[in-house]
Amino acid sequence: MLVRQVLCAAFVHRRRAARGVAFATLVAASIGGSASAETIGGALAKAYLNNPDVNQQRAAVRASDENIPKANAGYLPTINGEADTGIQDFNYAPSSPFFPSGVTHPRGYGLTATENIWNGNRTINSVRQAESGVFAAREQLRNTEQNTLLNGVTAYMDVLRDSAILSLNRANVDVLKEQLRQTQDRFNVGEVTKTDVAQAQASLAGAQAQALSAQSTLQASMARYRQTIGDEPKNLSPVKPLDKTLPKSLSEAIAISQVEHPAIVGALHGVDSAALNVKVVEGALLPTLNLQGQLAKRYDVSDIPGNQALTASLVAQLNVPLYDGGLTYASTRQAKEQLTQQELQADQQRDTVRAAVVSAWWLFDVSPAVIKSSKAQVDAAGVALEGVREEAKVGQRTTLDVLNAQQALLNARVQFVSAEHDQVVASYALLSAIGRLSTATLGITVAQYDPKVHFDQVKDKWIGLRTPDGK
């Protein structure tokens, strides 16, 4: 609301009250207040549903789900079918009734099924490792959703801030145009010198350049808004900083973040996955027991036309690894070092999250005082400008003094708008830093994406090429 108050009061002074009120009304209408105004909740709902970063991470989670049936394949048999055919021409010398010469067509078909009985617990550890990978991918998705929502809030507030700053700069141009006109009139009657006119012209040119720069900044903010939200910003409503959902103390915020932040939770699942990988690799050093069954039918057996044979067998195979050139030993040592690396990364992630919490906490904690000081600066600068103008009328102040006071007021108002922006963003950043920035926490009405749905659809799937959505 403070942004709109600043805009509604922008450059309203006694000599141009009617024009100032009209300008403020136009600015307020361009930012919010319309029946079809966009709210922060609506914008974040669009980002949650349509943002490419979020959707690609959801696809990554679905891809990770498929590691479960891949690992479970170790529990299931492998079945292969075989068939062959050929032609054989043979001649015996001398030929006899018992060994006649001729042509046969040896051929046959068969099935081979192999079931693993034990493989050093590699299958069960692979399944557990895949589950840890799925949990880590879900936390990565949650972290991506958090970052996207925070980027959406930042983009939303950037557009509001930069729209307000552009309006303030355009209003400043209008005021300086009037100042130049008045200075030119006073120069024509000999009240001021040509230097005063030049100073007014320089200030106007500088203000016009500032307005063009503010317009460029706004366009860049609008582009980032569209990139994050997926829609052009139109009629954005004001936003209030979060309050009730935030922790009451810095120590509480740090404690929450170390338990709930998805980056930390995901890193811990990564540690579990790396530990299980060590067991999987070590399992290659243990014996493997398989059960193999075969069924085969052969024709023209033993070079006798029409001779047939049906065979069936069931064989237990025990494979005991003795030495593979040191490959498994090196792989095991490598897996252990990767586990250490993952543990260190988890520790680093804790420190990173803690630093983000502390930074966001103090930015939000001091923001009310910054806004209060900025508001006082605006009020004081406005009073100073009016006083300088009155003193300039009686020759106690120069044109340059008036222009400097005008610029000081503009700078104060821009700082005030920026302080409001920073307070809102800092509140959402704090909620993100502790790991609780979500559509559910914000009370945004939107269809929630549940990664468990796809997981349940594929975890026990043992055949089929199509994905659950029909691809």
Care to describe what's here?
The structure is a single chain. The chain has 471 residues and is an alpha+beta fold. It has two domains: 371 residues, Up-down Bundle (Outer membrane efflux proteins (OEP)); 76 residues, Outer membrane efflux proteins (OEP) (Single Sheet), CATH 2.20.200. 64% of the residues lie in helices and 11% in strands. The chain is built from 13 helices and six strands. The protein has a four-stranded antiparallel beta sheet, with no helix packed on it. A two-stranded antiparallel ribbon has the order 2-3. α4 runs parallel beside α13, α6 packs antiparallel against α9 and α10 runs antiparallel to α11. The two termini are 48 Å apart.
List the helices and strands and how they pair.
Layout (H helix, E strand, L loop, with lengths): L1 H7 L8 H15 L8 H11 L1 H14 L1 H6 L5 E8 L2 E3 L11 E3 L2 E12 L3 H67 L5 H36 L20 H11 L1 H21 L5 E12 L8 E12 L7 H67 L5 H35 L5 H4 L8 H8 L13
Antiparallel strand pairs: 1-4, 2-3, 4-5, 5-6
